[in-house]
Write a structure and sequence with these properties.
Length: 129
């Protein structure tokens, strides 16, 4: 079971880093989701792989029981990762609703011939054109 988890973690990290290096915000969000899944697999593999749930029953050996703490951590991490991914997708939707392109753009080197008032208006979200 462990070699399968190692291969899955390797593939998820590889795909996640590849997607993070793109300019598209959709791919960045998917890359972050892949990385969080890889970390969840790592945390789950740190716990014991038992056959039974961690219930207190007489005659049960410790080797047969799975560890509940990594499972609780992963469950919490899944909820946090889902909320963060939804936050990224909502930000991307808000950017495209304003007429923008859902891509990461490089900032200009300088402000050119624009006045400080125009730059401040752009930073505050006002259009004074």
């Amino acid at each position: 079971m462990l070699p399968i988890v190692v291969i899955a973690v390797f593939l998820l990290v590889t795909v996640g880093v590849f997607l993070l290096l793109h300019r598209s915000l959709v791919r960045v969000a998917l890359g972050l989701a892949c990385l969080t899944h890889a970390v969840n697999f790592l945390v789950l593999s740190a716990g014991r792989w038992g056959e039974r749930a961690p219930l207190v029953t007489p005659g049960l050996r410790l080797e047969d029981v799975s560890d509940p703490v990594p499972q609780a951590f992963v469950l919490t991490a899944i909820v946090i990762a889902m909320a963060f991914t939804l936050y990224l997708l909502a930000g991307m939707a808000a950017k495209t609703r304003k007429g923008g392109v859902p891509e990461i753009v490089t900032p200009p080197e300088d402000d050119g011939e624009r006045s400080p008032e125009d730059v401040l208006a752009e930073l505050e979200g006002r259009d004074e054109k």
